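tmp note - ER membrane protein complex subunit 1
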Amino acid sequence: MEDHSLLLLQQGKVVWSREDGLASIIGVTTSELPVEKEGVSVAKVELNLFEWLKGHMLKVKGSLMLASAEDVAAIQGMRLKSSEKSKMIRDHNGFRKLLIVLTKSGKLFALHTGDGQIVWSLLLNSLRQTEACKNPTGINVFQWQVPHHHAMDENPSVLVVGRCGTGTDALGIFSYIDTYTGKELKYFGLDHSVAQVIPLPLTDSTEQRLHLLIDANGQAHLYPRAPEAVSIFQRELSNIYWYSVEADKGLIKGHGLKSNCAGEAADNYCFGTRELWSIVFPSESEKIISTVTRKSNEVVHTQAKVIADQDVMYKYISKNLLFVATVSPKASGDIGSATPGESQLVVYVVDTVSGRILHRMTHHGSQGPVHAVFSENWIVYHYFNLRAHRYEMTVIEIYDQSRADNKDVLKLVLGKHNLSSPISSYSRPEVTTKSQSYYFTHSIKAIAVTSTAKGITSRHLLIGTIGDQVLAMDKRFFDPRRSVNPTQSEKEEGILPLTDSLPIIPQSYVTHSLKVEGLRGIVTVPAKLESNTLVFTYGVDLFFTRLAPSRTYDSLTEDFSYALLLITIVALVVAIFVTWVLSEKKDLSDKWR
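out:
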């Protein structure tokens, strides 16, 4: 079908259908479920009572082996309906959410994280072929309105951005969708192209998130188009920067904003841009194959890292850092297309505001493909070493040397430190880096990192292997400070002894014995419960699970014996009372002597 679904028709009737469009996901975001509203109607109570009585009657019939096949199916349906996992209201732990996924066919799905059911689906009118738009293409899906103060009155919505063609110079398409009902609230074509979409960390009074769209001519367009959005944006105009990568030209540019557009495109929502810096990689020796940056919504719990002997190192935390990997042109093909002498892999860490290169490292005799993940102050990337004929993974950690003097506890207590002093990307940062490389057994397809609500829980790397499985590895395995013989203080800190290769522990496979066929991406979403993170993996198959990287230290397990706890408390209360009575009798008898 047009939406890539598959149907079996027999004598004019649909026998079965499959939503095979879910095998071509191009964008993923999340939405909270509705808040449970207080107050229950009498009719609802009567209906629930009737359902409860009906369920018990069916269970009795099932226990007595008198249930028919229809009764067994009804019992199973009632169990699924009453399950906590599949409820359509949000829970206090933040486990139940909606996964909003955009597919290549232009169809949007809402999947319930509890049981994977399709809550609603919609073939977007804005991404259907028309006379005006011959070849509509979806770009991505973004959170548009996330009500917090008006969660009881307003529904959240998402923004789908597309274009009428495959090139970046094609005109753009906008569509707003209610995530609770699946209705397309509004859609329209844009009068400019869409080369880049930048969600801004700004919201208006209706809690709509501001987005900046960059067209093919380098002009910036602000959405939503409202006077309030412009006034908010104007206040932050001088603090907004972004970068663009032209891999075929070996060029990375940094951009900033200036006054409103001039000429035909002039309006209050269009802004001119200016090029701040550029990095040109020589085409005869380097070709860009991978770029990675941090998640914009990532939470870092603390900048300080306490190491052995009570020393402190300060992480260099910046959302403006970009990881770039380049290879020699001869090594840009498949593995083995170049000799070790002809190939080299060069990695950079670039500040995207000033264009300054903070770190550069060369791996001689290595080539891509490069898969990388950037989190907090560290980067982990995977590549192939032609000299050793093995895959390798390297970690780079970046630390702030300008705060290295803040190690005196008395100064910290008295506030005589510079931890709260502002940091500017234009000042030359005093950074130091630590790195280490390890052999890795597998080729990989994707790599991600767990994320939690407060950033307290230790992070695990999620590696999508060539075997279409997801492997979870503790970040401690990628610590550049690992040594062959760690000292006692380093062991207490949790540093593992150094080995030349990373261990593959069978129990660490998140997917267990299952395979996610055609694995293409891994998405992590924080839950409200700090110890847990939600993981969604997509390809031809879909896989969802919940992980606790540091175990469930902030909650009781599902098999916890509440009955035993209650019995213990009652026994202690009885023992205290009996002991008190016996003590009183003993005191009284002692006084009569």
